[in-house]
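Section handout, structural biology tutorial.
Before the tutorial, make sure you can parse a SMILES string by hand: atoms, branches in parentheses, ring closures as digits. In the record below the ligand is nicotinamide-adenine-dinucleotide, and the chain has 426 residues. In the tutorial you will relate the predicted structure tokens back to the input. Do not try to memorize them.
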Amino acid sequence: MKKRYVQVGTGGRARFFYEAIATTYQETSEIVGFCDLSQTRMNYANTLLERHGQKKVPTYHYTEYDQMLDDLDPDYVIVTTVDRSHHDYIIRAMEKGYDVISEKPMTIDEGKAQAIIDAEKRTGKSLRVTFNYRYAPHNTKIRELIRDNVIGDVFSIHFEWLLNTEHGADYFRRWHRNKVNSGGLLVHKSTHHFDLVNFWINSYPKTVFAFGDLNFYGMKNAEKRGVKSFYYRSTGSEAAKNDPFAIDLNSNEELKELYLKAENDSGYIRDRSVFSDDISIEDTLGVTVKYDQGTILTYSLNAYMPWEGFNVSFNGSKGRIEMKVVEKSYINAGGDKENEGALEVKSIKVFPMFDEPYEVEIIEGEGGHGGGDPVMLNDLFGTPEPDPFNRAASHIDGAMSILTGVAANKSIASGMPIRVNDLINL
Ligand SMILES: NC(=O)c1ccc[n+]([C@@H]2O[C@H](COP(=O)([O-])OP(=O)(O)OC[C@H]3O[C@@H](n4cnc5c(N)ncnc54)[C@H](O)[C@@H]3O)[C@@H](O)[C@H]2O)c1
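Predicted structure of the complex:
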């Protein structure tokens, strides 16, 4: 019998799941219904299903979510809506007796995380949070090296993440730019990074201190730099034509079908100027975390960098590991990706305390994130093999990965260190 899935939220990320089900996993899985507040986006998802030779599935307005569950009685609900609504759909599915797969972040604050944890206990249903970064071969390799005691006890970690002027800037055009929707980058984006740290060192955060500012995006900052003209949205705007931060929603099929054509039924404008005055998230962040078993993390995130990726080093009782990953290299001011891929780097080096340093081989597979995405999808929809790295993330992993960011947000607001145990009762 095929496993039957319904999906709530049919925007940009959704197709990663429903297309995998409709193609690679069509023997074991099927998508049976969509739910969203935009009929246009659901119709587009159905068009893509048809392109893959599948039948259209019934669509339900977001006000008919419970009705969809009653009508279709699926095996799983997949949640790919905006972050602020994840908890609502997760909890309502569990209450009705369904297991859930949710995109990250599991949710955006400690109250909603507690409600999910309580619902899981009350209903006995399961929640899986899809942390695809864990499956990228370089990230799994770090877990292996630390697990195998290659550098002994990990006393400290230095981790800097760079978001570039293309992908990084996009957070400041979309719903993510308001903290009420995304929890800010420390939750929305750093949930991946803090989950990686929890996974790598097999520990959870204890105390968090942070600073954060909006230094580059936003109107005030553009004014300070002497920007001469401003606009509300880029598509159709004269002023946007010379702005390297503008995107044109007519420039590709997905942007047009999912967002431009859906403006009437969703009210959502996806191409807002990154230099507008209602941005409530930070673009420059510094966080210090002490973990349960004693490790100290120093973390930074900057969202206006010339390249995208990360540097991370682990300092241990027997040596040091350094990893550098450049995911996207230089983009020129016209938005063209110069020499795309040419500067991309993935390297892991081990520096034993009293021995020669050496490079660690990273074996990649086909597909996104160095072959990690297909492994995760197989884990979800195929016939998974036992995983020696335990990469499948539970609701507890989902909660612990956001709590570093939630605590960091509180620390930025209060100027005080925050104890994670004071935020949640697991
Ligand atoms: N793991 C990853 O690498 C990755 C990458 C991208 C996005 N994501 C996650 O996927 C989720 C969706 O992001 P996206 O980029 O597709 O955003 P998006 O804006 O393209 O899509 C969000 C969808 O949610 C719908 N929606 C909004 N409010 C709703 C409500 N109350 N009820 C039902 N539907 C509602 C919107 O109409 C839209 O179709 C986010 O949680 C994001 O964090 C994860």
